[in-house]
Write a structure and sequence with these properties.
GO terms for molecular function: DNA binding; DNA-binding transcription factor activity. About 60% of the residues lie in helices and about 15% in strands. It has about 100 residues and is α+β, with helices and mostly antiparallel strands. It has one domain: Winged helix-like DNA-binding domain superfamily/Winged helix DNA-binding domain (Arc Repressor Mutant, subunit A, Orthogonal Bundle), CATH 1.10.10.10.
Length: about 100
């Protein structure tokens, strides 16, 4: 799973998608495409963004949920916490104060 996380993070477009979700969780594909175009000048097709989201979801960095006809995307930082915890020699990520 760690390799999937690093593969997902290796692409600058996917990192921008994660940045956008970190700023505002629960976005639809349309919203993500719009933000990538207006804020970053990326003219990607919805299909291309959808493929990037699939890689992020496969790595566990993005969760999707359906509400009616719409699919919303949420950031999940737990895979990153596990990687950092491993490097710092902790079994589990620390939480709290």
């Amino acid at each position: 799973m760690t390799d999937d996380v690093f593969k997902a993070l290796a692409d600058p477009t996917r990192r921008r998608i994660l940045d956008e979700l970190a700023e505002r969780d629960g976005q639809s594909l349309f919203e993500i495409c719009t933000r990538l175009t207006t804020r970053h000048g990326l003219g990607l097709t919805r299909q291309a963004v959808s493929q990037h989201l699939a890689v992020l979801e496969s790595a566990g960095l993005v969760r999707t949920r359906r509400e009616g006809r719409y699919k919303f995307h949420d950031l999940d930082i737990r895979p990153l916490e596990r990687v950092v915890a491993r490097w710092l020699g902790h079994d589990e990520p620390e939480t709290g104060a």
